[in-house]
Design brief:
Layout: H1 6-22, H2 31-44, E1 48-52, E2 56-63, E3 69-75, H3 102-119, E4 124-131, H4 139-145, H5 148-151, E5 156-163, E6 171-172, E7 176-179, E8 181-190, E9 194-195, H6 205-215, H7 218-223, E10 230-239, E11 245-246, E12 249-258, H8 261-281, E13 285-294, E14 297-299, H9 301-315, E15 320-321, H10 334-339, E16 342-348, H11 370-384
Parallel strand pairs: 3-4, 3-5, 5-16, 6-15
Antiparallel strand pairs: 1-2, 2-4, 6-16, 7-14, 8-12, 8-13, 9-11, 10-12
Length: 387
């Protein structure tokens, strides 16, 4: 974090991060966290606006005279799960837990804002976006619908996520699709229930649904191009409540992951067709609902190159994977990258006791990563908005 009291900065950021960790807040309820962000931005003399997309905060810092502008984004929300990390700063709220490191993301972006406000070694405007509700609740879209990019115009937008699966001091990104789109589906099969001893007098919805579970696996294996990765998983099967009754309906639910809009449309169309035709084979009917929750996260090629170069300038090119494998998980930042070119990068935090993956009850953000993340953000701003 520059030469200015590096240890002091690290101590401040660690305390801040652990305070947020101890007081996690779920999607759109990040009022205390947003207040901490506002308090720190006020102390730094950085103008900001609150209440964007619910609890979102955006700070704006300008230096020099160029009209260029970029945005950096951190997420603030916690997960609705119980923490079992055993750390002294463990969550004091039952059923809420910073199990994805958003406490660390918020702290690192505040650390970058602090350093940039002191040094101002850039030419242009940087917007610090503190986003609510990343975990499947639509915080990015809420901010965009609230005029985020209209009120805080940015030519490019950047995101960063900690990754315990990678060693501390390593980075990974890639041009093009990096994180998958996510859609959930519900299928209801209806027919005529009846006595299990007299199957010829009714239709068997459990048999139809069972055939459908198998048939849906043909979508990825037989409909999509084998080099276009996708997942179709049936994760729920609900039917019947008696030993001797064929139920009148059966319900299936599950999710799909894919990297292109075209693949998503193909999967949805095949889900509907296979469900209808499989049900018809058993004289039943099928009703299908597909709901896309996340779009695919697609990095701009030039922005991905810039971010990989910036990371390499900090940690050396041997510790930067500039063309990592795409990840089947999803990320709300994808919606922001639909509106502006930019790049999402993963920063390794997995050394020593910190190999525990995100969304695991024992996870805790690795505070040794705080200065690395701050340095990355600062270097990115100074490189992208060079005078």
């Amino acid at each position: 974090m520059g030469s200015h009291n590096m240890e002091q900065d690290h101590a401040w950021l660690t305390a801040l991060r652990r305070d947020i960790h101890q007081h996690p807040e779920l999607a759109f309820r990040e009022t205390r966290t947003a207040e901490i962000v506002a308090r720190e931005l006020t102390r730094m003399g950085i103008p900001f606006r609150t209440g964007i997309g619910g609890t979102g905060v955006v700070g704006t810092l300008s230096a020099g005279t160029s009209g260029h502008s970029i945005a950096l984004r951190a997420d603030m929300d916690a997960l609705p799960m119980q923490e079992d990390s055993g750390v002294p700063h463990q969550s004091v709220y039952p059923g809420a837990f910073h199990g994805c490191g958003h406490d660390g993301h918020t702290a690192m972006l505040l650390g970058a804002a602090e350093q940039l406000s002191r040094t101002r070694a850039f030419d242009g405007t940087v917007h610090f976006i503190f986003q609510p509700a990343e975990e499947g609740e639509g915080g990015a879209v809420a901010m965009l619908n609230d005029g985020l990019l209209r009120d805080f115009p940015a030519e490019q937008i950047f995101g960063l996520h900690n990754w315990p699966g990678m060693p501390l001091g390593h980075f990974a990104t890639r041009p093009g699709p990096m994180m998958a789109a996510f859609a959930k589906f519900d299928i209801r099969i209806d027919g005529k229930g009846g006595h299990a001893a007299l199957p010829h007098e009714s239709t068997d919805q459990i048999l139809a649904a069972s055939a459908l579970v198998q048939a849906l696996q043909s979508i990825v294996s037989r409909t999509l191009n084998p080099i276009d990765p996708a997942v179709v998983s049936v994760t729920q099967f609900h039917a019947g409540s008696a030993y001797n009754v064929l139920p009148g309906s059966a319900a299936l639910a599950g999710c799909t992951r894919y990297f292109s809009d075209a693949a998503g449309e193909t999967i949805a169309a095949r889900l509907r067709a296979i469900a209808a035709e499989t049900a018809a084979t058993f004289d039943a009917t099928a009703e299908v609902c597909v709901d896309q929750v996340y779009t695919a996260l697609v990095n701009d090629a030039a922005a991905a190159r810039l971010c990989a170069d910036v990371a390499a300038s900090l940690v050396g090119s041997a510790q930067v994977d500039a063309d990592c494998a795409p990840i089947m998980a999803s990320e709300d930042f994808a919606f922001m990258l639909r509106e502006r070119p930019g790049c999402y990068i993963l920063m390794g935090t997995g050394d020593g006791d910190h190999g525990c993956m995100v969304h695991n009850p024992a996870y805790d953000f690795n505070d040794a990563a705080l200065p690395i993340g701050v340095s990355y953000w600062v270097r990115l701003v100074e490189t992208r908005l060079a005078g």
